[in-house]
Every structure is written in C-alpha cells, then in structure tokens.
Amino acid sequence: MAFEFKFPDVGEGIAEGEIVRWLVAEGDVVTLDQALCEMQTDKAVVEIPAPRAGTILRRNGREGDVIPVGQILVVIGEASEKEAASRPEPEPAQASSPPASSPAVVAQDVVDVGAPPRAQAAPATRRLARELGIDLARVEGSGPRGRIVPSDIRRAAAAPAAVTGAPAAPQGERTPYRLQGLRRVIAEHMVQSVREIPHVSVVDRLNARRLVAVRTLLKPAAEARGARLTYLPLVAKALSLCLPQHPVFNARWDDGTLYLHRSVDIGIATDTDDGLIVPVVRGVEHKSVLEVAAEMGRVTERARARSLGPSELTGSTITITGGGPLAGLFATPIINYPEVAILGVYRIQEEVIVEEGDMRPAPMLYLSLTFDHRVADGAEASRFLSSLKDLLATPELWLLDLR
Amino acid sequence: MNHLPSARLIHLGAGAPEPALHLSPVVTETAAISAAERGALTVVVRRHQPYVLLGPSDRRLPGLARIREWADARGLPAFIRIGGGSLVWQDTGTISFGVARPSRDLTTVERNFRELGEGVLRAIRYLGLETAAYGRAVGSYCEGPWDIVVDGVKIAGVAQAIRGGFALVSGMILVNQDPVETTRLIEDLYELAGSPRHLRASAVTNLERLLDRPVALAEVEQALFSGFGSLYQLIPADLDETEWVRAARLYQERRLA
Hints:
The structure holds 2 protein chains of 2 kinds.
Chain A: E1 3-6, E2 16-22, E3 29-30, E4 35-41, E5 44-49, E6 54-59, E7 66-68, E8 72-77, H1 103-106, H2 123-132, H3 150-158, E9 166-167, E10 177-178, H4 181-196, E11 199-207, H5 209-224, H6 231-242, E12 251-254, E13 257-260, E14 266-268, E15 270-272, E16 275-277, E17 280-281, H7 289-304, H8 310-313, E18 318-322, E19 341-345, E20 349-355, E21 358-372, H9 378-393
Parallel strand pairs in A: 14-18, 18-19
Antiparallel strand pairs in A: 1-8, 2-4, 2-7, 3-6, 4-5, 6-8, 9-10, 11-21, 12-13, 14-17, 15-16, 19-21, 20-21
Chain B: E1 6-12, H1 18-38, E2 42-46, E3 51-54, H2 64-73, E4 78-80, E5 88-90, E6 94-102, H3 109-116, H4 118-126, E7 133-135, E8 147-150, E9 153-163, E10 166-174, H5 179-192, H6 207-211, H7 217-229, E11 233-236, H8 241-254
C-alpha cells in the first residue's frame, strides 16, 4: 500500500523548509534511509532519508519550493500503485477556490481560482507567496506568458518595501500578515523582554507650566545655534541629573549579571517607516541641553534614514520613549532589553487642576516609569519618578547642579 | 580528573602546508564524514586561501555560470557547501570552524546549533566581546537565526548540515575582513548571476572593529581552542592519508564546475 511520507518536524519552532535539491526521481527504487532530498530551514540543510524501501510514486514540490512541515513530500509504494498516487497534493482551501479534489483543478499546473484578472502561478508558487506575505497581483512574472515563478516571489520578498511585514493574498474575510525584517526583530526583542523581565509601571503627572516657559525661552536660542529643542532633550538632561541618586535604573543585564553604569547613555525610541529603532545618546550627564538636543536630532535623523552604525544603536543604559503628539494619555512601554527601566514621556495637554485652592487650567505632562521588578520595588521607583518630576516641574532647580 | 568528553581536533594553522590549505574548503566535510564513521566528535579550526562559497539554493541562480567565470578569471575556486545559507566570501581575514558529531536525528536542528556552536560563542567572549550571542543580523549576507552577533551585528556566520550520519555546525569568524567591501562584492556577484539582492553592510562587523585593535588569526585560533577546550578534551589528530584522498575527491565534487 502506498505510503505518504510527510515533511517531518526537524526542530523546535521550524514550520517550513525549502526543497533545495531532489536526490531521487519519480519511478526510482529507493532503499530504507536512502536520501530523498535536501531540505533547508534557516541555514540548516537536512538530508531527508526514506522511511521505507519502495518505489517513488510521486514527488511533491519542485526545487526551490517552500513547503510546510506536515505536507506530503513523497509517496512511496509498489510500482503498480503508480496510477493511484499520481494525484498531486491539494492546495490549502481558499474562499474562492473550487474544491481541491475537482478534476478541473488538479489536472492543471497553473490554477485559476478567482475573479479575473488573476496572476498565473503554480500552487507551490502561490503557497510560497502566502508564506512570504507577497501579493501575487503585485508581482511581475518572468515565466512563460508572464507566469509567476518562485524566483519572482523571492525577488519581491527581498525588495525593500517588503521588509517590515506584508499582507498576503486575502483569504476571504481575513488576510494573513507575516512579520518580516525589522518588524520580526522588534517582535523577537519585545517577546524576549516580556519573557525575561517582570515589568511594573508607575505613572505620574506634573504641572509643566515652568517647563513650557523654559522651553519657550530657550527654543529660539537653540535654533539660532542649529539645534531643535523639543521637550525630550530637557527630559533626558533631567533624567541624567536624577540617575546618580537612583543608580539601579541606569543599568543593564549582561550574561545574567546586573551592571550599574556610571555613564548615562540614553536610548531614544524612534518611530521610523520600518518600525521602532532605538539610537543612543551617550554621556548625557556631561552634555549641555543644547548638546543633547543636537545629538538627539542627529541620531534620530540617521535612524529614520537607516544609516546608523552599530555603535550608535547599542549599549544604552536606559531608554526614553515619547508618546509625542500622538493620541493617548500614557502607556506602559516594554523595557528595552537588557536594560532595567524605560521612561515614557507623553504629550503635554491642558487640564483643569486645583492649585492654591482654585481650579485652573494647566499644561500637564504625564510620565511613566516601567522597570524591572527584580531590581527595584515600587517605592524606589516612585521615589525616582518623583525626583524626576520635581526637576521637570521646576527646571530652575537644575541651576544648582550646573558646574 | 578530566570529565569532559573527548573530541578530535583538526587544525590548519599558520604552518599548514600549501596542499592542505588548497583542500581546506572541504576539510570540514571530510572530518565530519570521519566523525560519523568513527563515532567521534570532531572540531576543525582552519585557515584557507581566498574562495567563493555558495549556499545550496544558489545552485538555482539563473546566471550561476557567470559567478564561476568571475572566480575563474581571478584564479579563485568557488564551492557549493553542504550546509545552509547563501553566498559568502572567504579570505585571509576570516577563520573557519566546524564541529561534527555522529547523528541521524533530523529533529535536533536547534539543539545542534546551540550545543555545537557553544565553543565558538565562548571563544568570541574570551576575546572580550562578552555580549556575543546567537541571533539574526537582519539584512546581512547569508543571514540566519543562529549566527553569532554582538549587539545585533554579525561577527560569525553559522550554518548546519545533517546528512550521512553526522550533524555538522560550521561557519567563519570575521577577524578583519572588511564588511562593506564584502557585502558589496556579494551584491555584485548576485547581480552578476541575475538575482540582485539588497544587503546591509552595517549588519556585519569584524573583531578588529569591535575590539578596536589589531587581531591576529593566531589569537582567534587560540580563543577557539580555549572555547572548545572548555567543553571537550581536545585531542589533536590531523587528517590521515585516506582522509586526504577523500578530501581531494570532495574538492572536485563541491567545486562549482
């Protein structure tokens, strides 16, 4: 009786593989453990051995095809069973597809399954496109009569536009979305942080009237000297003034050991077209507000241009993330692993507060501090946030620390 | 008393004769076959002359012959490796390594990467890069999730093959190879082969850049001996005559013809 041999699960977390090379042909007689093909998954090439002796009745997939774990790879049986096994592996059902067992479909190499105009591609090519998140309608085919072949899909997947993630061909009411490139790296980084660090957040708000006044005063002067002064450089500088009194928040885990850092190297969470990038402004404690603003402007601009060098992207000891002008009162950000704390700074908005017994409008700034609960407790984090809040509420206090 | 498992160590170092260096690109596979036959864990640390090393999927490049012609014109050999990944450029600014153990288990891909690559990871940390870790350097040439990265930037490429009764984890440490020139060269070769790739040179680095000092190949070799030596009792044993014959045959088989 014919035996359907499926692509085995070759390792934890590996869901698919590329057929690099067939080592047998249909009709070949194989012995037990004879290599059938080479499959590649993430830089590992595995020779797949025959699970039994017999005749290769059918090979499923061509070299270069990417197939999921569990899909039939070969059918092995007696030569006389050839006829029954000649049925190809059906495509996963699509909303607009005819039944997979329809003879009108299985007899064709190129399947037309939807409303015209449809891109012409073989089932394995369509599957590859779905796996890589490529919309076939946007791919120019290089095969005969414009047919799309696997190399077209890979070329499309390698194009810069596809690096952050992409929707694949809609499947009825839902569309699979595959994380790619930087998006995938961000995802892995976030998962690692949440998995390894017990996160806790404290949130507070402050009357930013004086901070707004100071920034309004300094902004034109900074611009005259070539720097754009937003609130973030002021927050970064205040942070560097607070951290020496709360050193556990200026720290990184390396190989299971927590290191407290003297230098305040602040990561600036930067929204780019490709996703979140965190360039570093180093030695903030030694820089003036103007220097911090200039450096922050330089690295965030380079981040958006994706032209940062490794040294500008690594080694931060604490991170600031800004809600900026986007909506939202505050958030509880994820710590930039392997750091200990991340400070959230949100938009300043007018709120009515009680001040000296009167209700008055005031520009209120929300801050959040998310920290590693292994390293600090809520009381310590609250004291740290409170000292930062005091400095930002009364920027004149900084004068005391000027050298 | 030493309780470490023993491992054969094959080293093609500074004093390796020219014929051995000539066959260096296939020494790791040769040693892996012997590892399967003898049931012995084997570590290879080797230098080599410059060569182009393609991945198995690169066989389907539409203009593959043009890469061979490019290499031929410069007197360089080009090989297709048995491990995964894609095209890399091997020169005297890199050190290659390989670790093989007998295995017929297809389900241990991740475990093999983690365990057999550990000696390299330790070596890089011994050199002073304590944050070295397995990871994916997005956009790097021959990108993969089990490369060794320092703060997300590739310092060593790592690939694997499971076949013929062995599991082999192999790759190269970038010592002073220029990542920008290498990335451009690889882009040029893919373009030449009719399958352009957009790669990110900044996703790759080398030891000298990260350590900010000259790094000799011998220093990296010593670090590899220390790294693997912390895991195994290394027993130096060069290839024997039979193995050199096999290497010579593999050289012809793996060379891009």
